[in-house]
Specification:
- The protein is of the alpha/beta class.
- The chain has two domains: about 220 residues, P-loop containing nucleotide triphosphate hydrolases (Rossmann fold, 3-Layer(aba) Sandwich); about 230 residues, P-loop containing nucleotide triphosphate hydrolases (Rossmann fold).
- The protein is built from 20 helices and ten strands.
- A five-stranded parallel sheet has the order 2-3-1-4-5, with helices on both faces.
C-alpha cells in the first residue's frame, strides 16, 4: 500500500512538473537545475525522473565530464555561461561547474585559479543569473562511503554497467574521507539565498529521487506564485581608483612623418606579442569604446593589420537579436570570448548596457545600475582565470565630433558612416557624458582599468593604442 501511494504521489508530481513547465515558458522564466553528488550516488536516475516529466521541446540537458580540447582552451566559466537557458526554457545539468571546480582543484591545475577565486566566480555567476530572473535549483546527492563501495562493486560485476567504472572512480572512493571536507566547504560557501543547495541523503535511491522531484515542483510553484518583481536592490560598486577621464591626456598631435617613422617598430612588436600570447596560451580581449566618430574603426584597423589573421578576430557589436535578448545580456559576449592564445577585439561591448541602453531607455534603471557590479565581476573572473583584458575609451570633444560628422556627410566615400541615429545620439550628448563618466568611475578597477586616449589627433590615438597593447602584453608575459 505504501509503495502504491508513493507511486501515485510520484505520478502526480510528474504531472504537476509538466504544468509548471508550460507556465514558465508562457511567462518567460528560465530555470537551471543542477544535480551533483558523489560517484554512484544516483545522479543519472534522478535526472531521468525529472526529464520524464518535462516536454523535451522545452528543456536542454547537459552532462559534463572532463572538458573537451576546445573547452580546456577557454576560461573557467565559459562552457557553462554559453549553456545557460533562454527565457522560458529549463536547463538540467548532470554535474556542472562544481564538478569542474572540484576536479581542477584536486588536480592542481593552476590556470583556473585557486579554489577561493573559483568559489567567488561561481557565486557571482549564479547571483547574476538569479538577479536576471533565472530560478537556480541545486541538489547534492549524499551517500556514505560504505554505500558508495557497494554500488561501485555492483556496477563492476554487472556486464551491462561494468564499463562505467574506471580507476578514477576507485581512486576517488579511496579518498572519500579526504574529499569530504573540501566538498563541504564548496557547498557551504556557495549556498546563498539566490541559489541555495538542497543536500539529499541518497543511500536509499527511491526516497532520494522522490525528494528531489518534490523539491523541484515546490520551488517552481513558489516561483510562479511570487510577484514578478522580486529583484534585489542594485548595489553600485565603490570607486576603487582615480577617475581615468580626469587624468586623460591633453590634446596631442602627431605629424605624418612622425607616425610613419614609429609605426614599423610597433608593427613588429605587435606581431611578436601576438605569437607570445599564442605560445603561452593566454587569451586576450581588447575593448574599444568611445564617442561616435572618435576613430575606433581606424584604430582597430591599424592595430590588427600586422597580426596573423588566424590568431585574432574583430567582433563588431550592434543591437542584440531576438535570441540574444532571450538570455542574460552578458551571454552574447561570453560566446565570443577567445580561446587560449587568441585575441578578440570588441568594437563596442557589454558597456552598451550602461551607455546606449541606459540613455535610450532600453534597460531599466535597476538593470543598468546592477550592470556595473556584474561587469566588474565578469571581468575579474575572466582575468583571474588567466585571460588578458585591455579597455580603451577614445575621447573627443563635442566640436571635434561635429566637424567629423560634417566631413562624413560631405565625403561620398564616408557617407555610409553617418546615420540619423548618430545625429540623434549627439542631441543627447550631455546625457551620454553623464553615463560615460559614471561608467568609467564604476568600472575602472585594478584588474581591468580603463585607458582613456585623447583622440583629436587620429595618428596619435592610433599609435597610443598600439603602444598600450604592446606594453600590456609584454607585462603579461
Amino acid at each position: 500500500m505504501t509503495r502504491e501511494r508513493t507511486a501515485e504521489e510520484k505520478k502526480a508530481l510528474i504531472a504537476e512538473l509538466g504544468v509548471h513547465q508550460r507556465t514558465l515558458r508562457a511567462r518567460g522564466i528560465p530555470v537551471i537545475i543542477v544535480v551533483e553528488g558523489w560517484n554512484a550516488s544516483g545522479i543519472s536516475d534522478t535526472v531521468a525522473t525529472l526529464l520524464h516529466g518535462l516536454d523535451p521541446r522545452g528543456f536542454d540537458f547537459h552532462a559534463f565530464g572532463h572538458p573537451s580540447e576546445e573547452e580546456q582552451a577557454r576560461t573557467f566559466l565559459w562552457r557553462f555561461w554559453v549553456r545557460t537557458p533562454a527565457r522560458g526554457r529549463i536547463a538540467v545539468f548532470a554535474r556542472s561547474w562544481y564538478s569542474r571546480m572540484l576536479d581542477e582543484e584536486l588536480r592542481g591545475i593552476d590556470w583556473t585559479g585557486r579554489l577561493d577565486r573559483a568559489i567567488r566566480s561561481v557565486r557571482a555567476f549564479e547571483r547574476q543569473l538569479a538577479d536576471d530572473g533565472t530560478l537556480v535549483l541545486k541538489f547534492f546527492l549524499q551517500i556514505s562511503r560504505e554505500e558508495q563501495r557497494r554500488r561501485l562493486l555492483a556496477r563492476e560485476r554487472d556486464t551491462l554497467t561494468s564499463w562505467m567504472i574506471t580507476r578514477n572512480d576507485w581512486d576517488f572512493h579511496r579518498q572519500y574521507d579526504a574529499y569530504t571536507p573540501l566538498i563541504r566547504r564548496i557547498v557551504e560557501e556557495t549556498d546563498g539565498p539566490e541559489a541555495p543547495w538542497h543536500v539529499v541523503e541518497a543511500d536509499l535511491p527511491g526516497p532520494a529521487v522522490q525528494e528531489v522531484l518534490s523539491t523541484v515542483v515546490e520551488r517552481l510553484r513558489d516561483r510562479l506564485e511570487a510577484p514578478d518583481d522580486h529583484r534585489r536592490p542594485a548595489v553600485l560598486p565603490p570607486v576603487e581608483t582615480a577617475l581615468p577621464v580626469d587624468g586623460a591626456e591633453s590634446p596631442h598631435s602627431l605629424t605624418g612623418h612622425e607616425y610613419r617613422a614609429t609605426v614599423p617598430e610597433c608593427r613588429d612588436r605587435l606581431r611578436a606579442c601576438q605569437y607570445s600570447l599564442f605560445r603561452r596560451k593566454i587569451p586576450l580581449v581588447i575593448v574599444y569604446e568611445g564617442w561616435d566618430a572618435a576613430g575606433k574603426g581606424g584604430s582597430i584597423k591599424r592595430l590588427v593589420e600586422s597580426m596573423n589573421p588566424r590568431g585574432y578576430e574583430v567582433v563588431p557589436i550592434s543591437r542584440p537579436n531576438d535570441g540574444e535578448l532571450a538570455h542574460h545580456y552578458l551571454w552574447r559576449f561570453y560566446r565570443r570570448f577567445p580561446p587560449a592564445g587568441e585575441i578578440r577585439v570588441f568594437d563596442r561591448s557589454w558597456y552598451g548596457r550602461v551607455l546606449v541602453e541606459r540613455v535610450e531607455g532600453f534597460a531599466s534603471e535597476h538593470e543598468w545600475q546592477r550592470a556595473y557590479g556584474e561587469i566588474n565581476e565578469m571581468e575579474r573572473s575572466y582575468t583571474e582565470s588567466g585571460g588578458g583584458l585591455i579597455k580603451f575609451w577614445l575621447e573627443i570633444d563635442s566640436a571635434t565630433q561635429l566637424e567629423r560628422f560634417r566631413e562624413r556627410e560631405e565625403d561620398p566615400l564616408k557617407q555610409w558612416k553617418i546615420t540619423e541615429e548618430d545625429w540623434r545620439n549627439r542631441e543627447k550628448r550631455s546625457q551620454y557624458e553623464e553615463a560615460v563618466r559614471e561608467m568609467l568611475v564604476r568600472t575602472h578597477t585594478p584588474h581591468a582599468p580603463w585607458t582613456v586616449i585623447e583622440s583629436k589627433s587620429k595618428p596619435y590615438a592610433r599609435l597610443r593604442a598600439q603602444q598600450a597593447v604592446i606594453e600590456y602584453i609584454e607585462g603579461l608575459i
